[in-house]
């Protein structure tokens, strides 16, 4: 099989590898499409923590089941599935409490073990989700949508809640779309005009420029004179995250789904007087994946909400730097096989 390997930062090479044999309780996936994540971009640039080389990238994966390992009885060859890339230990305290998304010993396919930039991939049977009747490019986006769904669930978003999503990258877009699907009043803030245009066009939601002098006035205007009760920050920007407390109403909540390497700093009196609820949101659970699949089946989530670019797998070795790394127009790309 053809495999694209990130040998070291800035270097992708093609390799011909044997198609893996699925082991006990594994399924062999014939890959159909793979989403490109910020993780893949940071790994190419040598900026991804907890990462070792060489590595086959890609953790947003759609494929068909090509073979079944011993002990796999609930799946059949030919079914289209999404891969849940978080391989949990199922033994630590987080796993035992049902929070496999923050397993103490988590291994992420495409990060800690080889991923989907390959024609075939074996994965544990508990790490797949049936996704038939959905376009392959949309199935590849179930994973980023699931991260967004987990953040919305952490925020306990309810109908008519006033929600500000900060950051209109793929996770922020998914968060806004899912909060809207839950019936919330949603606004999206981003500094880039192109991304604000994408929100308006594909999500039909109002947008704000957080650098504008009238940002706070327009924020209140959008929520009937009030600040939002929930801010979900998907920027990974310390400047944005440190200001989140200033954006919520008294009794409000903040969820950080983006992250950065460093320390958060904000006014403790402001944090305290608002009785702020502050949460982190990491990865997603099988329930989040299933919820996204349901929303896709109902037409409430579409690939176009995130997708801006399509790339061919057999051309990726020569186009990755130009089309992905150095492409300011890219919001979300999907690699198509075959």
Give short descriptive properties of this protein.
24% strand, single chain, 7-stranded mixed beta sheet, Quinone Oxidoreductase, Chain A, domain 1, 2 domains, alpha/beta, 11 helices, Rossmann fold, 338 residues, 6-stranded parallel beta sheet
Order of helices and strands: EEEHEEEHEEEHHEHEHEHEHEHEHEHE
Number of strands: 17
- Unreliable spans: none
Shape type: globular
CATH topology of the largest domain: Quinone Oxidoreductase, Chain A, domain 1
Arithmetic mean pLDDT: 96
**CATH level 1 class label of the largest domain:** Alpha Beta
In total, the number of domains comes to 2
Helix and strand content put the structural class at alpha/beta
Describe the overall structure.
The chain is an alpha/beta fold and 338 residues long. It has two domains: 2-141 and 307-336, Medium-chain alcohol dehydrogenases, catalytic domain (Quinone Oxidoreductase, Chain A, domain 1), CATH 3.90.180; 147-280, Rossmann fold (3-Layer(aba) Sandwich), CATH 3.40.50. Helices cover 27% and strands 24% of the residues. It is built from eleven helices and 17 strands. The strands form four sheets. Strands 3, 4, 5, 8, 9, 16 and 17 form a seven-stranded mixed β-sheet that branches. Strands 12-11-10-13-14-15 form a six-stranded parallel β-sheet, with helices on both faces. Strands 1-2 form a two-stranded antiparallel ribbon. Strand 1 (2-8) and strand 2 form a beta hairpin. The radius of gyration is 20 Å and the shape is globular. The mean pLDDT is 96.
